[in-house]
Automatic annotation (TrEMBL):
Protein name: LuxR family transcriptional regulator
SUPFAM superfamilies the record matches: C-terminal effector domain of the bipartite response regulators, P-loop containing nucleoside triphosphate hydrolases, TPR-like
Domain annotation HTH luxR-type: ranges: 857-922
Cross-referenced Pfam families: AAA_16 (PF13191), GerE (PF00196)
Length: 929
């Protein structure tokens, strides 16, 4: 912003007023005394107008006598008259005479029943003497009597002024009175008398227009930038010159402000507060009430809060609008409201917020509006307050404003009430804090468990405590509380009974060694939440059957993310993962992650990120899996995870191990985990990941110990499901590393025997391991494994299977085909970020093989059409026919026809023989690359 001249806005849009005052001055010089009454809102430039008139119109042509009325000096009798004569050029005798008259006038005002505000009647000889002294001065030299803030003039001075005005007919005197616009005139009789006088001229000032503001900022030239700047200044100040000066001071005095950039700072705030304090007290009270409410309000409500009549509140708002302080009853800028609030004593501000809360509550305002005032109010223990705060917290949680909900519930808990009310408030607070960080909830568990035992928490609140205890591994306390709740099961309503049954299911599934499945109801589920509970039981005891997958899809399709559905949603996603529906699981999980982020629920986001990491890991996307797992641990701290820490840690361990980053894996292994982790199914995944690290780094005995521990736990839990944790295969690979093919063969055969037909991915991995045990069907088994892995989308396991297949082809003397298969394995591993060579990079047969000459297959790739090449690229990367049809927007039948022609042109038998590095002239192809 350009620097403005001193006296911003003095002459802008005031030419007509100055001209009128100059005309009256000429009349006075001719011996026809005049009175000019200038009125306008505080800060509209009345004093500046008077100063400009004195400087530019009066000059040396007359003597100017000035006085200013003051709110603090309204009881000082003849104080304003004394100011005028103090600046008059009186002789010593005149000064002595005026001084005696002022003393006599003050005395007579005091003894004539003065009320301490306006003063009593002044004796006539005093008024006459003082008036004569002023007129005698005018005979020597024309006078301009300038009175600022006449609305604050003392009563005795007002009597003298009325006396003087009636005697101006043939005097060379111009009286100029400035006053602020008032809701109720302070001196109605005086106004009536003055306005009746024919020598009185009334001038009304208002705020500057947008054009006027632009003239102040930049008289010329008027560019688009200055017009925009002027519009912004006018929007913030309403054209009030005093506020405009403060805004300009902020913007030109701030060294960090760019040219033409507005800064609304201390100068603007100070100007606003000064103006409001100069207004009559009603305007200040209404402005404070508006600042406290911070939203549109009815005049009855505003009046009650400001302690004025509604009609007067309406007029006050209109006056504040006219002065540029408000725009349609609202502050023009947040800094304006903040300045008004800062100008209040903290105790006064808190008391007004409490009063606003009570008034709004009695008017049935939304609970969240009332609650915001209660947060800023004086602490009070009214019984109506906690229910309002709870209702407001529920609303805040529904829209994702978790921090606001926590603030409301903390206040409800502080207010307390009886022990039952404190228990409910603390439970609600713990539930809200869970969304942000479960570690905060842990601080409440001891108190909450006591409330459950005492019977102060029942139903949902009591069962939530059980869930939180399970999360943090306090399974014994959780089971004990379930017993307490179950003893009163006959008193529970339908919803609480469902919750009790669900908690029993969760406990049995989360801690199979401690939970008691016989306590769970045997009938079918009545709701989505119970359906998810039964689904989890079935996955852990029978495996992810086709029916499980269908139910999981149904749960995900019909559930919106909230605190009651996050558990069922997690179970459904896990069922899809274990059922090898990775593409569907990834798509749904991505949508839920976006929703959790929008709902501002870090805990939900962390849980979903951990699931997404597992999905990516099973798809062979090691880097993506690592990113999601790290994100999960970053969203909420590790200590907040409880036993669930095993989920993201397991993914990180397996990903880093597969990528050959063993130092990183060690770092993750050193992260502390609770002992209770190994009582949970999540602990099995952690043991599997740790065992893989041990096996890969040559610590085979430690690896076998972890895998055998998994087997023992799954046997004890009656959950020997290979699709859940295929420990038989893990142990078999370890035995193979130790040179024990017979033991490996027995284990992997047992795993295959336990698999159900739908477990495609685990079956394919098992076939690869079986081939490595020396089975005579080695090549056939590996080809079947490759085909199956291509259909389920796990690129990393596909790379492992292709690596073994290339070795089998080489051992059979099929060297050309072995090279093609080896390159495909190497390229897939590179895409996954995997390292296939174990501890020694030189041991990687794929990395050390010299570049091979083009094979007949590669030479004929150029014969493929664009459409055939696109299908072949996606098929070589492991996409199913259905996935290819979705990506290319063609039918499955068309994909099959293209693949048939590709096989014929490349002289290969199946997609397992497709070269991965198919060329394409299409920029950005393949999609998602």
């Amino acid at each position: 912003m350009t620097s403005a001249r001193t006296g911003v806005g003095i002459l802008v849009e005031r030419e007509a007023e100055l001209s009128a005052m100059a005309d009256r001055f000429e009349e006075a010089l001719a011996g026809r005394g005049q009175l000019v009454l200038v009125s306008g809102p505080v800060g509209s430039g009345k004093t500046a107008l008077l100063q400009a008139f004195a400087d530019h119109e009066v000059g040396s042509r007359a003597r100017v006598l000035r006085a200013v009325g003051s709110r603090a000096e309204r009881t000082l009798s003849l104080g304003v008259v004394g100011q005028l004569f103090r600046h008059a050029d009186l002789s010593p005798e005149g000064k002595e005479r005026v001084s005696r008259l002022l003393d006599d006038g003050a005395f007579s005002s005091m003894i004539n029943d003065g009320d301490g505000e306006t003063g009593g009647e002044v004796s006539a000889h005093v008024l006459q003497g003082l008036c004569l002294a002023m007129l005698q001065l005018a005979e020597q030299r024309p006078l301009v009597v300038a009175l600022d803030d006449v609305h604050y003039i003392d009563g005795a001075s007002l009597q003298w002024l009325s006396y003087l005005v009636r005697r101006l007919r043939q005097a060379r005197v111009l009286v100029v009175c400035n006053e602020a616009t008032r809701l109720v005139p302070v001196h109605p009789a005086f106004h009536a008398e003055l306005l009746h006088e024919p020598r009185t001229t009334r001038i009304r000032l208002g705020p500057l227009s947008r054009t006027g503001v632009q003239q102040v900022l930049a008289p010329s030239p008027r560019t688009a930038a200055t017009r925009t700047l002027a519009a912004d200044c006018h929007r913030i100040t309403g054209g009030n010159p005093a506020l405009l000066r403060g805004l300009i001071a902020d913007s030109t005095g701030d060294r960090g402000a760019a040219p033409g950039h507005l800064v609304v700072g201390a100068g603007f705030a100070q100007a606003l507060v000064i103006c409001l304090y100069r207004c009559e007290f009603t305007l200040l009270k209404v402005a404070r009430a508006l600042a406290v409410l911070d939203e549109p309000a009815s005049m009855p409500l505003l009046g009650r809060l400001a302690d004025v009549e509604p009609e007067l509140a309406q007029r006050a708002v209109e006056a504040l609008n006219a002065g540029g302080f408000l725009d349609d009853g609202q502050f023009r800028h947040p800094a304006a409201r903040a300045a008004v609030l800062d100008g209040m004593v903290p105790e006064e501000r808190a008391a007004m917020h409490l009063r606003a809360a009570r008034l709004l509550n009695s008017d049935a305002a939304p609970a969240v509006v009332v609650a915001r005032h209660l947060l800023l109010a004086d602490f009070v223990e009214d019984p109506w307050i906690p229910p309002v705060l709870h209702e407001a917290a529920d609303h805040a949680l529904a829209i994702g404003d978790v921090n606001a909900a926590i603030s409301f519930l903390r206040l409800a808990h502080q207010i307390g009430g009886d022990e039952a009310q404190r228990a409910v408030s603390e439970a609600a607070l713990a539930r809200a804090e869970w969304r942000l960080n479960p570690q905060r909830t842990a601080r409440h568990l001891t108190d909450l468990a006591g409330y459950v035992r005492a019977g102060h928490l029942t139903g949902r609140d009591a069962l939530s405590v059980v869930d939180w205890l399970l999360w943090f591994g306090r399974v014994d306390k959780a089971v004990a509380l379930l017993d307490v709740i179950g003893r009163n099961a006959d008193r529970l309503d339908a919803e609480a009974t469902e919750g009790l049954n669900l908690s029993r299911l969760w406990t049995a599934c989360a801690y199979p060694g401690a939970g008691r499945t016989h306590d769970c109801p045997a009938t079918g589920p009545a709701t989505t939440r119970l359906q998810a509970g039964y689904l989890l039981v079935e996955v852990l005891t029978s495996g992810p059957t086709a029916r499980c997958v269908a139910e999981a899809e149904q749960i995900l399709h019909g559930s919106r993310l909230d605190e009651r559905t996050i558990g069922p949603i997690g179970v459904a996603l896990a069922a899809l993962v274990y059922g090898d529906r990775l593409g569907m699981a990834a798509q749904r999980c991505d949508a839920l992650l976006h929703e959790a982020e929008g709902r501002r629920a870090p805990t939900w986001h962390a849980v979903l990120a951990a699931l997404r990491a597992e999905i990516a890991l099973r798809q062979g996307d090691l880097r993506v899996a690592e990113d999601y797992a790290r994100a999960a641990l970053a969203v909420i701290p590790p200590k907040a995870w409880g036993v669930a820490i095993g989920a993201p840690l397991s993914t990180l361990l397996r990903a880093c191990t597969a990528m050959g980053r063993y130092d990183d894996a060690v770092t993750h292994l050193r992260m502390p985990v609770p002992d209770a982790l190994f009582q949970t199914p999540i602990g099995l995944h952690y043991l599997q990941a740790r065992g893989r690290y041990f096996r890969t780094t040559g610590r085979h005995s430690a690896a076998l110990a972890d895998f055998q521990t998994i087997g023992e736990l799954m046997t004890a839990w009656e959950a020997e499901i290979p699709a859940f944790v295929p420990w038989w295969g893990e142990a078999a690979e370890t035995h193979l590393a130790l040179g024990r093919p017979r033991e490996a063969h027995d284990l992997i055969v047992e795993q295959l025997r336990r698999l159900q037909p739908g477990h495609v991915r685990t079956r394919a991995i098992s076939l690869r391991i079986l081939a490595a045990t020396g089975d005579p069907r080695r090549t056939e088994l590996l080809q079947r494994a490759v085909t199956a892995l291509q259909s389920c989308g796990d690129r990393l396991e596909l790379a492992y299977a292709l690596t073994d297949l290339s070795q089998a082809q080489q051992d059979e003397g099929n060297l050309g085909q072995a090279r093609v298969t080896r390159r495909r394995a190497r390229d897939l591993a590179k895409m996954c970020g995997a390292f296939l060579g174990g501890l020694d990079p030189a041991a990687d047969p794929l990395g050390t093989a010299p570049p091979a000459p083009p094979t007949p297959v590669e030479e004929t790739v150029s014969e493929l059409s664009d459409a055939e090449r696109r299908v072949a690229v996606l098929a070589a990367q492991g996409h199913t026919n259905r996935q290819i049809s979705d990506k290319l927007y063609v039918t499955v039948s068309t994909v099959e026809q293209h693949l048939t022609r590709v096989y014929r042109k490349l002289n290969i038998n199946s997609r397992a023989d497709l070269p991965l590095r198919l060329t394409s002239d299409v920029v950005g192809w393949p999609p998602g690359a």
